[in-house]
Design goal:
- The chain is an all-alpha fold.
- It is built from nine helices and no strands.
Length: 195
């Protein structure tokens, strides 16, 4: 019942947004600034019928997955290490703060000069997603209960077992990684589509 209610609210909000779009398009009376819904949907259906459309969508999805994997691996390794070693955390803080402060949309123009066109979306997504995931991983390690380390020592787990099996892997997969990736993903999608 709750999901039906949520879906109805979502449908109503989407309909209101489309009505606002159409009213604003009529009020502006400029198909260049804000086209009306009819031509937009006609063009979208025309593009969807082209054979290149499917390959372009697939390529965009693959680029998003590639950037996510790069961010996941690099931010996980550095975030875990920064969470464990405060000196490394202090050393990396200026870099992460700089990445957070970079205006991504303005740097894309420079990235087109620096890199090839296939690399620009990956670079831009990295600038946007790495700081978020790095901070999540670092905070996840810092929030670990110190008694868990003692428990691993008490039961005779090796360092590798305590690191991968009994401690960090379940913690990150359940608490740090899965529920929090919605906002970085949405940002990466919009960024990849712009590039």
């Amino acid at each position: 019942m709750r999901s039906v209610k949520r879906n109805l609210v979502l449908l109503l909000a989407s309909a209101i947004l489309l009505i606002i779009w159409q009213v604003a398009s009529i009020w502006l009376d400029s198909q260049i600034l804000l086209p009306s819904l009819g031509p937009v949907f006609t063009t979208l259906l025309g593009l969807a019928r082209e054979p290149v459309f499917t390959s372009n969508v697939l390529f965009t999805v693959l680029r998003a997955l590639e950037s996510f994997l790069i961010i996941l691996v690099s931010a996980s390794i550095l975030g875990v290490l920064a969470g464990r070693y405060s000196l490394l955390s202090t050393f990396l803080r200026p870099f992460v703060t700089t990445l957070k402060a970079v205006p991504v949309m303005s740097i894309i123009l420079l990235a087109f000069i620096w890199f090839s066109s296939g690399t620009v979306p990956l670079f831009s997504a990295f600038l946007m997603g790495f700081p978020v995931m790095f901070v999540q991983m670092e905070m996840g390690v810092k929030q670990l209960d110190s008694n868990l380390d003692e428990m691993c020592d008490l039961y005779g787990f090796s360092k590798r077992q305590s690191l991968y099996i009994s401690l960090y892997l379940p913690w990150f997969l359940i608490l740090s990684l899965v529920p929090r990736q919605r906002s970085p993903w949405s940002g990466k999608w919009s960024l990849l589509l712009r590039c």
